[in-house]
Each structure stands twice: as structure tokens, then as C-alpha cells.
Amino acid sequence: MKNCLPLFRQNRTGQETATDLYLITLLGIFPLFPGFQGYANITFSKFLFFVSVTGLWLASLAALQWRDRARFGRPTAAQWAALGFLLAVALSWLCSPWRGVSLLAEGRYDGAVTLAACVLCFLGVSRCTVPKPCHVAALAVGTGLCCLVGLLQILGLDLLGLFPGDLNYYDSGLRYSGVYLGTIGNTNILDAVLALTLPLCAACWICTGRRAWLPVFVPCVPVLLRAGGSGLRLALAAAALGGAPLLLTELPRVRRALRLGALTCALAVPTLAFAPEYVDGVLRLGFAFGSPSLLCALGGAALLGLSLLPDGGRAPKPRTLRRVFLVLSGCALLGALALIWFWPGQEGTVWELHQVLHGQAQDSFGSSRLRIWRECLALVAQRPLLGGGPGTLGLRLDIRFARAVAETGTTLRTYVDNAHNIYLGYLVNCGGLGLAGALAVFALSLRAALRRGDIRGRALALGLAGALVHACFGLGLCLSEPLFWAALGLAAAGRGAIREKESEHEELEAV
pTM value? Predict the structure, then answer.
């Protein structure tokens, strides 16, 4: 209840209250909205939910602005960049040969309307509120319950009936293409949400010690290990390496980070030992405690033991700890690169990275992402400035895949209508102007979060860092992008946007 108290502060403006309620709806309810026909129509359902809620919120802001005659300061650099990006999107749509399709981009709904709604979400959030505990709590609850639904699906229980007909999670690659889980849909999009949420909640726990942030890891870690992609793991590793010198400046924080690692290992043990068998439409649950589970158990015990060691004297200065973890992060990065360089294996993601470092990249690497990226880059030269228009990549790209399934005697066919890289997608669809505007928004929002100098700013910066790394492999659809742009808005929200100034002690108590 304490986390919700800031919502009812008496000196709040009407626009701030409306914005906070909008954020709670968007961050907490939007991820859980299962749609009208499950996975068969979940993209349109999420699109309709996002556009409707955003439209009602913007209308309320306009009405409150007219009633209260509220005055705001000059736009910040991030807000000017967002306006520039919005202009680039509008020009790209107006100049597109496929203007009719580009407005909505039906099917994936990543057209001009969705991009405009995301930018307006960013502008309204960054102008009318500041980061509050209730915002992070809403995102944690929404993501945690979404992963709980996914965890039940992994166990064979589709309680919400999201899979059409008699299909289930284990029919992926046998009776349908793609992997779907939770109330988000495609697991690549779920990965994008986890890349934002998990570093954000981890930073809140490490900095405050409030156990309210730990329950989100209970369903999310098993889903991450069972269905998470390599892009998500890379994003979380990058957030951990960058966050260590940023957050671990006190021994209590170091202890909490070690305990979080121990909790993650404890959740990983049964997840890795879980050995389901899906044969002839029947799922049999079993467990096989092997070496990965044993290593996780030993690692968790070691991390927990380290967190319980006594201080042993005078506590080191924050500057000293920051330098120590900066060196450790650098060594970990160099060690990972050395491991990849000398990797002896002959398959898997690490082997593909090994081949790339040695200049032997193949189009099939990254689930054929290298081929997709290469052909997308070839499209850039055709319309380099404004692109083909939002959501038009599928009209310009002709990549199809077919795979025979021996178990069913059928052939699964798919076609590519997404760049599988959000930055490249902006470049192809909205041109160089669109990509430059988007990158400016991302960079300036991240800088604003770090310059806040408080816990909320650092936590948001860490979450955004994870999301931005995952964007290199993400889809950028309306099922996850609204959450990302809302977090960007909170990161770019300045203390001068509304009359609120809290001391560091108050923030420590409230987060």
C-alpha cells in the first residue's frame, strides 16, 4: 500500500493523476490483456487496447489543460528529439508509395498510427509526471503474471485458452511456426519485455532492499531459461556488466546482488532439471538432475555464502567499489570475448559468434537473421532518406522459408515481414531521418535518467539499457513497444515537469 500513497498526494495536478493512472493501466494491465481470440488475433487486440487507452488519456490531458490553464516549461532536448522523430514518421508516411498500407500496416500493426501513439505517449509521460514506485510496481506485476501464465503453459496448462484449437506450446515447430508463450505472444516480444523489466526490478531490489521486487523473478526466471532467446540473455548480461559499477557502491548493495544471484540459481535448478516429453499429443512431466542443475546449485550456495560473510573491518569507499566492479566488468567482457574466440564447439550460438569474429559469417546464423539484415540493408539504398513508409518492409522484402516436418509429414512455410532488428527496421521503413530521430530520443532519455542522480534514474537507465541491447534482435511491434516508450518517457521526465522534489532519503523509503 505504501507504494501507492504518492498517487493521492494532495498537491498533485489533474494531468499528473491522469498520467499516473494511464501508466498503471499501460504497464500493469496491457501486458496481461489476452485479446479477443487468443494468439490468433492478439496483435490486433493489443493494438486496439493501446490506441484506445492512449487516445482517452490524451483527450483527458487536453480537457484538463483547457480547464486548469497549466503552464509547462520549455521542451527538453529529448522532447525536441521526439518531435523530430514524429515529423520524420509523418513525412515518411506522406511520401510513401504505399501510403494506404503504411497508416496501420494491418497484420503487424507497426505503421504510422502505432509509432505516433508511442511518441505521444513518450511526450505526455515526460511532461506530466515523474518516475514513481507505483509505475515500476505495475510493470513488475504485469510482467510477472504474464510469465506465470507462460509457466503454466510450459507445464501443459493453457488456462486462458490462448492457443487455437487443440494446439499447445509443444506443437511449436511441429504444427505451427514460431514460439508463443504468456499473454504477450511471440517469445521474441516477451523477451523484449523481460529485457526491460528484469534489470529494472533487480536495480530496485539491490538499491533499496525491499523484498517486494523479488516475486517477479519467481515466474520470470524459469520462463527465461526455458523459452528465452539468445538476444535476451545477451541483453541481461550487458545490463549486469554495465550495472555493476553503477549500482554496487555500498557493501549492503553488493550483498543484495549476491543474494539475487543465489535466488536466480535456486530457480534455475528445477527449471534445468525439468525434462518434459511430448509424444503423440501427450505431455509427460519428468526431471533429470544433471550437471547444469548441479552447477547452478553449487553456484547458488557459493553466492549465498559470500553474501553472509562478515565485513571484516572498515567499509570501502563508494569510489573504490565502483572501480573494483568496473575492472571486474571489463575482465568479464574480455574473458567472454576470449572464450568466444577460442570456442572449440561446432554448433550453437557461441559457435556462430566464434565464426563471425573470425570473419566466416553465414546467412543462416542467428536463425537466418544475417540473411534478413543483409537484404534489408539492400533496400535502404532505394529510399535512404525517408524509407518506404512505416510498416512497409514486408511489401518490399521477399524472403520465404520452408521446412519439412518429419513427425507430421507436413511442410511449414513462413515469410519475413520484419527486419528482426528495431534499428534496421527504422532505417528501412522511416529512412535515415527516422533512425536519427529515434536514436536521439533513446540516447537523450538514457542520459536524462543517469543525470537524475537518484535510485529511480539508475534503475530506469539499467532497464532501458537491457531493452536497447535486445532491440538489436527484436521485432519492435505494438505488443511491447508501448512499454518501452513509456519507460523512455519516465526516464526523460525532469523534476521541473511538475512541482515535485524529494530528498534522497524519501526516495529510498518510497521506491
Answer: 0.93
